[in-house]
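Memo subject: From amino acid sequence to discrete backbone structure tokens
Keywords: amino acid chain, backbone geometry, structure tokens, three-dimensional fold.
Body of memo: The sequence and its backbone structure tokens, given next.
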Amino acid sequence: MTKIRNYFIIFFLTVCVPAAAQRYTISPINADQVLNQDNIRSNVEYLCSEELGGRATGTDGGRKTAAWLEGNFRVLGLKPLGGAWMHGFNTNDGLARNVIGLIPGSATPSRYVVLMAHFDNLGTLNGRFYPGADSNASGVAALLQLTEMVTHMNTCRKIYRHGLIVVALDAKDKNQAGAEELWRQISAGKLLDPVSGQPVSASQIDLVVNLDQLGSVQAPLTEGNGRYLMMLSEDATGRRSSLESANREPGFGFELGYDYYGSKDFTRLFYRRISDQRVFLEHGISAVMFTSGITLLNNKPEDKPDSLDYEILKDRIRLIFRWLDKVL
């Protein structure tokens, strides 16, 4: 028993405490231990595989994607809400599935942040395969990586006030039907917190964070600068100062944008109309969208894994985690 306990102490010191620290310090830097560029690329490549057929809602590939995500949620130790990770709902194209899990927080009564990304894409149309690497395998890969980073911080005894509700959404390409279904479950009291046994209510959700297209450098804010990230949000609720503070840390220095390439109309379009956070904004819940922007490859067969920049995607995930660590 003593030997096992000593091994745990060594693990804690080497993995959860920076080497230069003179005392136990639970820093978000510790989460970098589980940030793996090869895993990010591997996840994108699997999501874009012909086995999944482009992940269209209601297809066998969409079902397989949801099952794969459920397996990842189990391995990461997420808790199912209402006794299940997978939540089915009907669309005109057949059965769709949201995959939902929880990392509990410490607040009493419970408070939540919702972290979400849609996994569906166009599928295979008229014999043409649409892999959807940037849209939105990149967002799903970021979702899984951020979830693993939060669970790792829990291993390091980091206590977050907010519970993190992690959602892989289906049917974004069906008028955000997956986000609509998530809202319906919340408003109807159908999502039960597995710790408290109580329904998750809209009044308990402090922020919704949507990850949609994060892997490209083909539409930079400034020509030639691939180190950029857009965060669409309201001025007062997006915690922009927290993102800027994290961005000043060594190794970041991203060009940050808080609108869609300076256009009020396009910002309104992507923030309030055609992205999954729309339904929450319409019901008065604050929301943030992280994106690297639309490119000429979106919704085309050429949106393949090799078109993404995985080093920059990894650093975007690192920056978003630093921000998320402050928000939670």
Observations:
- Residues 27-327 form a domain with the Aminopeptidase fold (CATH 3.40.630.10).
- The longest strand covers residues 94-103.
